[in-house]
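chain below, 269 aa
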Amino acid sequence: MKFKGAVNRATQSRTVEWIARVGYPVNGLLHMLIAYIIARIAFGVSGEADQTGALATLAEQPGGSLSLWIVAFGMVTLALWRLAETVIGLHPGEHVNAHHRDVLVINRLKAFGLALVYLALSFTAVQFALGVGRKGTERAEGLSERLMQTGGGKVVLIGIGVAIVAFGGYFVYKGAWRKFLADLKVSGGPLITVLGVCGHVAEGLVLIAAGILVIGAVVLHDPTRATGLDAAVEALGKTQFGQTTLLVAAVGFAAYGLYMFAMTRFSRM
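prediction:
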């Protein structure tokens, strides 16, 4: 209880809150870069359409190393806030007695999962800043190939695929039913609502495709299919209306990026 109380008091600090908010524009920037990469792929330019590809794009720009360190810091701040939510519940800074609230376990698990994602992104950004980063598809293929060698590994991969599909479905639900408005401390307004709907639905659908591909990779014993977001974008590009689909996806990711910028100011913390 003392630990929860200490975490709760920390999240009530305005300074801590604004440091945590730094992660939102960083996340928005990464989504804008992913949207840019997807749009380029739609017009036949090769690229890796995921967070690793976005970080690699940053690394190639003037001042890229500094930008990557900023990304790493921003992701750590969001990760620490999510870990606080894991301990005392969602939006801990909203209530003085947040550590006394009865919060659903699923909310704590969701916050913990997001914390792990943000920490992984921070670690990858540091790797690129130090010049030792490598393509996410290479890592994903290597890991998938090793897991496919055993029955237990295949079960793990299928579980990962199901989890990605479920997370994507949650994003679609959150966007289509406008549940994301509960994350805002304002009513939202037409612009933020449109950005939130388009961004959540588009990213959710791409994540669902990525999860299905991971499951299919296990069935077909093809690790090249289990590369996450990048594989999903590649698969969408090969459909009958591939270019149009990719451009719609790019717009959706850009919308989510802009929504993240809005969250910097208006998110509940």
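The radius of gyration is 19 Å. Residues 2-266 form one domain.
thats it, cya
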